[in-house]
Amino acid sequence: MNSGNMQDFFKGKTILVTGATGFLAKVFIEKILRIQPEIHKLYLLLRASNSDLAVHRLQTEVFEIDLFRVLRGNLDKDFNYFISKKVVAVAGDVAIENFGIKDENLKNEIFEEIDILVHSAATTNFNERFDISMGVNTKGALHALNFAKNCQKLKVFVHISTAYVCGDANYEDGIVREKAFDMDQSLKGSSKLNIHNEMNLLEKKIAELQAMNADENTTKFALKDYGIERANLHGWPNTYVFTKAMGEMLLVHHKDNVRLIIIRPTMVTSTIQDPFPGWIEGQRTVDSMICAFGKGKLPCFLGHPKTVLDIIPADLVINCMIAAIVLNSKHAPENFIYNVSSSLRNPLKISDVHNISHQYFKKNPCLNKNGKPIVISKGIALKSLAAFNIYTEIKYVMPLKVLNLVNKMSCHSYQDAYDDNFKKIRIVKQLAKLYKPYVFFKLIFDDTNTENLRKETRGYNMENEILEFDPSSINWEDYMMNTHIPGLIKYTMK
């Protein structure tokens, strides 16, 4: 393979991307359109009831955002014309067979034309309703595979998963390898997982709630709790990774002759270089802790200081995905699962994130609602959940009870102070509950398949850039101080 062939591969190709308004999907779409303007067509599937709404969502949520400023600058006044010629918005829903595409002519056109299907659609909410998460993350994966089987020219099917499908099971050597699940594999020896049984139990649960005439709010929280219950029963910490794991099982079990690639990124963070440093959308896992700390709402960092936080910039994930597509498109890959991770080759510890965050916000403080700098202390690192509970009880809960009593006795003269402290406690507890499995995560992700892919890719330039996805190239302090945290402030802390 000669220099330039990597992007030449996409010349004249047609790609279908599901979940087109998602974070990683947008980075992929931008990259493909920028490096290969001679791509034939991009079909972009997104949730919408009709094509007009799909076009509107695509315009406002994808092509008008800052991520596309480089491409927009390159094309100048031709940008909108270029997008109209290369991109087709497809209204649909991955939770429905054939994506719920109502236009039969469009569906048949896609079946005939696409070379690559990138299944990116997912609900990433850790505590999503079980029915929604099951519909999108589990059934949606199977619907995408079945759709791919109808595509006459398909060369490769790419499924974007998460490395944390490993759950919190005990691995003998502490290493999570790039290995497929067995069908109906449970992470707990004491339980037996059956995906179809889980679907049936979910339907029964919904029927029970309907028979009780449960209102929408009651139903929502009941199904959230039920998802967590089922996930924990089988060894997964939350509904998100449980339903993603089941989706992977269905894909591997039913893939037949489809050339399947599964990309498993760890905690995805802002772009490190491409199309420019620091672009991010939404606060992702560790970001919530950093932002709350910067606003003075997180006086402590939960997690053992030596715990490795496995983060990876978004553009490195996409570069790996592009390399996997090109190098595995001509034959069914023997090793088709890729951990895109940093913990093995360039670990970043919680203590590092704590120190860097304190250093950054000390130099660049956030402003309060009155426009004054928020002075933060470094706070303390709490090494266990027990220590966290004792700390919050003594430091916040007990004083808050006293404040509440004084507030009531003084005709609510201290209501603002009480409300502020109540919110602070709530935020700290929510973050602790949400991220407990990750801030005490003891495993390291093996990336042998990804490293072999890097070796195959190394030296194959794409115009003036290398398709870089080597985590050992990242200087974490420089990235966090000068790229990631400034990106968080610019895009998510407005």
Topology:
Blueprint lengths: L4 H4 L5 E5 L4 H13 L5 E7 L3 H13 L5 H7 L3 H8 E6 L11 H10 L2 E4 L10 H20 L6 E5 L14 E2 L18 H17 L4 H18 L5 H16 L5 E6 L1 E3 L16 H9 L5 E3 L8 E3 H14 L9 E4 L9 H14 L16 E3 L2 H25 L5 H25 L4 E2 L2 H10 L3 E2 L2 E2 L9 H17 L2
Parallel strand pairs: 1-2, 1-4, 2-3, 4-5, 5-7, 6-13, 7-11, 8-10, 9-12
Antiparallel strand pairs: 14-15
Structure description:
- The protein is α/β, with parallel strands linked by helices and 494 residues long.
- It is built from 17 helices and 15 strands.
- A seven-stranded parallel sheet has the order 3-2-1-4-5-7-11, sandwiched between helices.
- The radius of gyration is 24 Å and the shape is globular.
Please list the strands of the largest sheet in the order they lie side by side.
Answer: 3-2-1-4-5-7-11
Mean pLDDT: 89
| Approximate helicity band | 40-55%
State the distance separating the first and last CA atoms.
45 Å
SS element count, helices? 17
The gyration radius over C-alpha positions equals 24 Å
Largest sheet, if any? Answer: 7 strands, parallel
Strand residues, percent: 5-15%
Class of secondary structure makeup = alpha/beta
Count of beta strands:
15
Poorly predicted runs: none
